[in-house]
Amino acid sequence: MRKVLAILAPLAILAFALPAEADAPGVAAAALSAKTVAARSKALSELESQKAVDPLAAYAAGAVEFLVALEKLGAGLHRHGFESPQSFIVPLMRLPIPENPNPEPLTYESFRQILVDFHDAMAQSAASLAMVPKDADIGVVVDLANVGIDLNEDGSIAPDETIAAIIASLANGGTSPPDAPPALVFRFDRADGYWLQGYANFLMAQTDFWLAHDFHLAFDQSFQMLFPKAKLPMQDTLVPPDNGASSIFASEWRIADFISYVHLINWPVVEPERRKAARRELLETIRLSREDWKAIRAEKDNDREWLPGPQQDGTNQLTGLKVTEQEVRAWHTALQMAEDLLEGRKLLPHFRFADKGINMKRFFDEPRTFDLVLSITGPGIVPYLEKGPIISSAEWSALQQQFGRVGFLTFALWAN
Length: 416
Description:
Blueprint: H1 2-8, H2 25-33, H3 37-50, H4 55-79, H5 108-129, E1 139-143, H6 163-171, E2 185-189, H7 190-211, H8 216-222, H9 235-238, H10 252-263, E3 266-267, H11 272-297, H12 325-342, E4 348-350, E5 353-358, H13 360-365, E6 370-371, H14 372-377, E7 385-386, H15 393-401, H16 408-415
């Protein structure tokens, strides 16, 4: 379930059957039920022309733009013959990209452009969602079998490309989904707009962190594990003729490439402003999560909730989980802890240094070469060490225990 949530939590808000009293619903429904990319683009253009004056249009436009951002990423990966590593380590790249028998060659510069396009499309989604007033009365019913993304770039959205089918595929470990995926219908409200906007910022932060650095050497020497037929520099030397299993941990040569990748995470800073932006985007994610929970707590109904509050009985039909008051309080504690770290008010502990901690604000705002291994072993984070209040392992352990059988990670992926 964690694997499903990791990639599909952002997808679940993307299909609407909108109320009849507004002007935007018909156009939004057309955009989100479109069976071709061209039809969706036409409807999205109409939504964008209305969003400055119609909160529902802004809400729907932001959701469709989120869809478009994910589709841009999927299309870029498909174009170059991406093979999913089927690993929780890279959850966003678990999208079930169809096989491309004739992939185009991929260069480092082209891959960076895929990330730039993804980031900018996410930023557009976040900007549209930010236009929705706090007190907007939003109520939209979502059928995940009625919306999808064009994963194979053929211009159409087929039944096996719907969100429900993608969920079923991921739940089956990446295998083909059943002929009739289970029904997944939710009613999304104002709170869920904050939720989706928060996810957009979270994904932007991850992308900005990558783009802040030069990872050219890692790309050239290890990315054939993801793009085995895209004419990368090491393809002819290191990729076996039959490729083998696509999962990193079921393929010896991919394990070797993954080890190379980790070793090669020694990335000089080339766009320092992006590393600074990543911190701001993470702080915005925290702010939006608080707004989300404030809106959830104010809800009086209990109608097919995507993220229910403790006052809303029943379990979520996708996760099978019920949110408790204890978990909500613990989540707010986690948000405060994360904010304190990102603002430098508290320091991140490191096992090598008993009396000092890492100032994460300076880590982002005073960027230096990022070396993963040296950061883990100690030398790489020495420039950011300070004396001050350090978050203890006991605090963290006590917080994790508040999430019971759900687990902190599962809750975080769901609740954002």
